Amino acid sequence: MALAALAPFLAALLTPFIHSLAGRYSGWVLATVPAGIFLLLLGVSEPVIAGGTIAASFGWVPSYGLTLSFFADGLSLIFALTIAGVGTLIILYSGAYLKGHRHKGRFLAYMLSFMGSMLGLVLADNMLALFMFWEATSVTSFLLIGFYHNRQAARRGAIQALVITNIGGMCLLVGVILAQHLSGTWLLSELRGLGGVLKDHALYGLVLALFLGAAFTKSAQFPLHFWLPNAMEAPTPVSAFLHSATMVQAGVYLLARMTPVLGGTAVWTGVLVAFGGVTLIWGALGALRETDLKQILAQTTIASLGLLVLLIGLGSEAAIAAMLVYFVAHACYKAGLFMVAGAVDHEAGTRDITALGGLADKMPVTFIGAALAALSMVGLPLTVGYFAKEEMYLALVGGDWLMLFVLAVLVVGNALLAGVALIVMIRPFLGDALPTPKNAHEAPVAMLAGPILLGGVGVVAGLLPDWLSADVLAPGAMAILGHAVEPHLKLALDLASPLIWLSALTWLLGIVVFRQAQAIRTVLRRLSAGIGWNADTAFDAVMFGLIRFAATVTRALHHGKLEFYLLAVFAALAVALFWPMLALGGLDWIVPTAELGDWSKRLVLPDLRPYEWGVVLLAVLGLLAVLIAQSRLIAILSLGIQGTALALIFLLFGAPDLAFTQLMVEVLSVVILTIVMTNLRLDARDHRPFEDWARDGTLAVVCGAGVSLLLMLVLTGTLDTRLSDFFTATSVPIAHGANIVNVILVDYRGFDTLGEISVVMGAGIAILALLRRRKKTEETGP
């Protein structure tokens, strides 16, 4: 399992090298990676089909009990096989679609990372690992949607997708942490066996809201659906993969996986059925409003995602079976149709169905792929889509009036999708031939393999209902429901069953929708224009307001006045010093008491030798020299006296390393300040108004007094040597260093030290850049 999840990432790292060697055949070579994963998963599927699981785990953060765990049951195996199978054809398709593109290698690396993220998500057992892969799908999709980064629409679509899905990601993170806190486990395999531990808890509503927020953003449920059509700015291979087996299916998987833990309640059913039904109708109507093939298919994906969420919400055996079969059917026909749309655009030069017609003569194989996929989308007999439709109707027939209303929504939604499928299959390929920007011709083999094979799977699998029931439906439903589900898919048509008549009604309404598509499109566009705004425009307004707010805050806080920055920093330091002392009674020594006497008996003063007082006097003289300096140069040199005195204090108290470091810092500081100040007049004195002098002087005295008082109060307590004892005991055996100070800096505080070095390096580079810029300005003139 771990190999299946991590292999695409390794392949992505090697992709630039492979692409440089394989060239135009890099797509064929890299397609072997998902193909190998598909065969690997098939090879281990037998115990899963029998109702078992396969697990693997590795130590991740052992000190916190975290393991990087993967497992495969019927549900995750269906998703993983679909991702790997469709991914093989998508990678193959990508190699031909981006033939000659100078960033083709980069694109293929992104695609493999995208695939690995989704595989890791559906195979992860540890909920934190699931979150990690969840966010990885958002990041990789951002890179893929914005691949054509020179286009503003692509950049906007990528940012919009990242913002919306990351909101869901934060919901998922909080939900995962809360679920672990309430259940005591990070593992999904253990969580589903704990029964109602979450459903019976008072925080069930919060946990449910968090997981639904994550799923709804990722799977584009109304009203969070608007990012998905804008993601069509990505290259067509991305759209084909994102809409069929990855990214948007992550939310569906999460809901299915959490059904045993959070499902079965009235809130769960009501929310999922309501939002799923609205999303189904909204997406189907949105598809009829569009004329661009990719936009049409994107809107139908929204509708299909709503349908899947609705079925999960119903939660019955028939509904879950319908969800699983429909997921497979949708993955096959949607990937195939997107690849058909890409082939038409690639070879004819347009995706507008009003400008296409008669392509079947010029692109016969592409038409066959489109027809096979569309038939499954319509749900005609002998296709997987037919069984999915039959199962979802079976889940609602014979129910109460509310279930009958949901059944009506499904019939209308399926009819609208059937009408759209007929539009996609017939409008571009049949009828009178129309002139196109390019001389249309058949696509390359690599671009045809996907539509033909996936369309064929949608039909062949429909001819094998026993296999579909036993090897797909049964193990997947068992993983969700927790008990065995009796397979019952059959090829026979029972005219006495209401299901066949509901299907016939769906097909009839689909034909009506197809024939009235132009009129429906006109009405929908008029309604949209009449409203004048939608969720997409609302998002733009929110983002614009957020940017304006950020700019206002930036102007208020980062106005470039260094004096104000220093004043704010030292004022905060004064508060941080005195507030704890006041709150914790650290200043009670000021008031004499009978028991303790005056303050001198309760406050430890430093006991210094005469030469140590001499060093303190040197520091005071340096301070006075800075204050009365008659020029900037004298002030800079006097400032070095302070650091030198501090270095002497370190030296006197047994810290020669710190003394040497402090001395070097002071030398460098004086040198750098002198170099920088060469751009100013060093013989001038900075005049300061009395109010500035009084304000800054008071603040300096307060901060200095606060530090001194705090240190003296610390000395009154008992020294806790646990940390120093730990450093002394572990410096040699663990860090292999006898110099404890160096070990602390390099090992125990390694990242802190690295950060300090990075800051110093950044400041040095900035200073160098300023000096070089001034030099160039002086040489070339203004």
UniProtKB/TrEMBL annotation:
<feature type="domain" description="MrpA C-terminal/MbhD">
    <location>
        <begin position="617"/>
        <end position="680"/>
    </location>
</feature>
<keyword id="KW-0812">Transmembrane</keyword>
<dbReference type="InterPro" id="IPR046806">
    <property type="entry name" value="MrpA_C/MbhE"/>
</dbReference>
<feature type="transmembrane region" description="Helical">
    <location>
        <begin position="107"/>
        <end position="124"/>
    </location>
</feature>
<feature type="transmembrane region" description="Helical">
    <location>
        <begin position="634"/>
        <end position="653"/>
    </location>
</feature>
<keyword id="KW-0813">Transport</keyword>
<feature type="transmembrane region" description="Helical">
    <location>
        <begin position="130"/>
        <end position="149"/>
    </location>
</feature>
<dbReference type="GO" id="GO:0005886">
    <property type="term" value="C:plasma membrane"/>
</dbReference>
<feature type="transmembrane region" description="Helical">
    <location>
        <begin position="238"/>
        <end position="256"/>
    </location>
</feature>
<dbReference type="InterPro" id="IPR050616">
    <property type="entry name" value="CPA3_Na-H_Antiporter_A"/>
</dbReference>
<feature type="domain" description="MrpA C-terminal/MbhE">
    <location>
        <begin position="694"/>
        <end position="779"/>
    </location>
</feature>
<feature type="transmembrane region" description="Helical">
    <location>
        <begin position="201"/>
        <end position="217"/>
    </location>
</feature>
<feature type="transmembrane region" description="Helical">
    <location>
        <begin position="365"/>
        <end position="389"/>
    </location>
</feature>
<dbReference type="InterPro" id="IPR042106">
    <property type="entry name" value="Nuo/plastoQ_OxRdtase_6_NuoJ"/>
</dbReference>
<feature type="transmembrane region" description="Helical">
    <location>
        <begin position="262"/>
        <end position="284"/>
    </location>
</feature>
<dbReference type="Pfam" id="PF00662">
    <property type="entry name" value="Proton_antipo_N"/>
</dbReference>
<feature type="domain" description="NADH-Ubiquinone oxidoreductase (complex I) chain 5 N-terminal">
    <location>
        <begin position="63"/>
        <end position="107"/>
    </location>
</feature>
<protein>
    <submittedName>
        <fullName>Monovalent cation/H+ antiporter subunit A</fullName>
    </submittedName>
</protein>
<feature type="transmembrane region" description="Helical">
    <location>
        <begin position="564"/>
        <end position="591"/>
    </location>
</feature>
<keyword id="KW-0050">Antiport</keyword>
<feature type="transmembrane region" description="Helical">
    <location>
        <begin position="753"/>
        <end position="771"/>
    </location>
</feature>
<dbReference type="Pfam" id="PF20501">
    <property type="entry name" value="MbhE"/>
</dbReference>
<feature type="domain" description="NADH:quinone oxidoreductase/Mrp antiporter transmembrane">
    <location>
        <begin position="124"/>
        <end position="409"/>
    </location>
</feature>
<keyword id="KW-0406">Ion transport</keyword>
<keyword id="KW-1133">Transmembrane helix</keyword>
<feature type="transmembrane region" description="Helical">
    <location>
        <begin position="296"/>
        <end position="314"/>
    </location>
</feature>
<feature type="transmembrane region" description="Helical">
    <location>
        <begin position="445"/>
        <end position="464"/>
    </location>
</feature>
<feature type="transmembrane region" description="Helical">
    <location>
        <begin position="320"/>
        <end position="344"/>
    </location>
</feature>
<dbReference type="InterPro" id="IPR001516">
    <property type="entry name" value="Proton_antipo_N"/>
</dbReference>
<keyword id="KW-0472">Membrane</keyword>
<feature type="transmembrane region" description="Helical">
    <location>
        <begin position="699"/>
        <end position="719"/>
    </location>
</feature>
<dbReference type="GO" id="GO:0015297">
    <property type="term" value="F:antiporter activity"/>
</dbReference>
<feature type="transmembrane region" description="Helical">
    <location>
        <begin position="401"/>
        <end position="424"/>
    </location>
</feature>
<dbReference type="InterPro" id="IPR025383">
    <property type="entry name" value="MrpA_C/MbhD"/>
</dbReference>
<feature type="transmembrane region" description="Helical">
    <location>
        <begin position="659"/>
        <end position="678"/>
    </location>
</feature>
<dbReference type="Pfam" id="PF00361">
    <property type="entry name" value="Proton_antipo_M"/>
</dbReference>
<feature type="transmembrane region" description="Helical">
    <location>
        <begin position="74"/>
        <end position="95"/>
    </location>
</feature>
<keyword id="KW-1003">Cell membrane</keyword>
<dbReference type="InterPro" id="IPR001750">
    <property type="entry name" value="ND/Mrp_TM"/>
</dbReference>
<dbReference type="Pfam" id="PF13244">
    <property type="entry name" value="MbhD"/>
</dbReference>
<dbReference type="GO" id="GO:0006811">
    <property type="term" value="P:monoatomic ion transport"/>
</dbReference>
<feature type="transmembrane region" description="Helical">
    <location>
        <begin position="161"/>
        <end position="181"/>
    </location>
</feature>
